[in-house]
Specification:
three-stranded mixed sheet; alpha+beta; 9 strands; four-stranded antiparallel sheet
Length: 316
């Protein structure tokens, strides 16, 4: 699935903006949030759907690296990766699990605090479970329950779980180097790095925090810089020195994902479906975004519905 040409590409030497600069430009304008919340305790238990304004398509807005990170597109796109990016399906099983509900009644001031938290974080969805039962559920008004939402770096959990299951099956070993499984990693910064070290984000490689945005063609200052993709980015990293070498890097998860695919002959979306999504009885199919070379975004490309995920997750 990985294009052979990707391995020969070299990471551009363009100087990337500081992380803080991009974060400030990608951050949401909380002060302008349009969320409206009901906190009428006398008629509405905490379980009831707390709603906000509908996430409708902003007519006339062109989707490009500069506009996708600012309102109104920044609120709309996470629900619409299927339409705006290339995605691979993570299939559910024919038989799904049914969640039990146990509404928890909160005082008006408690419900108000929850509403403030959701507003402050521009939260699109929230599902809380306690003792195996749903006690509170919220979804942005106008969004159907079947529509998936990007979960960003929470995707790393699924890649890690796939690796753990494969290790339990004897197909991977925690203390063996990644390049023994993904041969393309030999001669790169990941040569000699164990699966355990990569999952702990202790690989020792150095990666510009903005490099992934450029590699995927999603940086606001992309310009004519080519989108080299996940594989080329992962193969381009070098060993570092000192504390900087042990900062979390997205390519650590990518390298693990590549190893999982190599030992099984299956793609990451197929592995997540077979080992996690279908067995747990997810209610809806999930998605995983892929780059221009059809390589999965192992570290941040997964999309799911609230009731499709096996844990409670804040969706920003």
């Amino acid at each position: 699935m990985h294009k052979s040409s990707a391995g020969s590409q070299v990471l551009p030497t363009t100087t990337h903006p500081k992380t803080s600069d991009l974060v400030s430009r990608l951050s949401y304008s909380n002060s302008k949030s349009r969320m409206k919340v009901s906190a009428n305790q006398s008629t509405q238990p905490a379980l009831a759907q707390t709603r906000s304004s509908a996430a409708e398509y902003p007519v006339g807005q062109e989707i490009n690296p500069k506009t996708r990170w600012v309102r109104p597109l920044s609120r709309w796109i996470p629900f619409h990766y299927r339409e705006t990016l290339t995605t691979a399906k993570i299939r559910r099983a024919d038989k799904t699990s049914v969640l039990d509900y146990a509404p928890q009644h909160l005082h008006e001031d408690q419900l108000g605090k929850v509403a403030q938290l959701l507003k402050r974080g521009d939260t699109d969805g929230l599902l809380v479970m306690h003792n195996g039962k749903v006690v509170h559920e919220y979804l942005l008004e106008g969004v159907p329950t079947w529509r998936t939402h990007g979960i960003n770096s929470a995707s790393k959990v699924f890649t890690g779980c796939v690796a753990a299951i494969l290790a339990d099956q004897g197909k991977l070993s925690w203390d063996k180097p990644l390049h023994q499984y993904a041969l393309q990693l030999k001669g790169t910064g990941y040569e000699g790095v164990t699966i355990q070290a990569a999952l702990d984000m202790q690989s020792g490689v150095v990666l510009d925090p903005m490099a992934e945005f450029f590699a995927l063609g999603q940086h606001p200052d992309q310009g004519s810089e080519p989108a080299i993709g996940v594989t080329a980015l992962t193969l381009s990293v070098k060993k570092g020195e000192g504390k900087a070498a042990y900062a979390p890097g997205c390519t650590d998860t990518d390298a693990v994902g590549m190893a999982c695919e190599q030992v099984t002959g299956k793609t990451m979306p197929e592995l997540i479906s077979e080992l996690i999504w279908a067995p747990m009885g997810a209610k809806e199919d999930a998605d995983m975004t892929v780059d221009h070379f059809c390589t999965p975004i192992y570290n941040g490309g997964m999309c799911a519905t609230l009731q499709g995920k096996p844990s409670c997750t804040f969706c920003h």
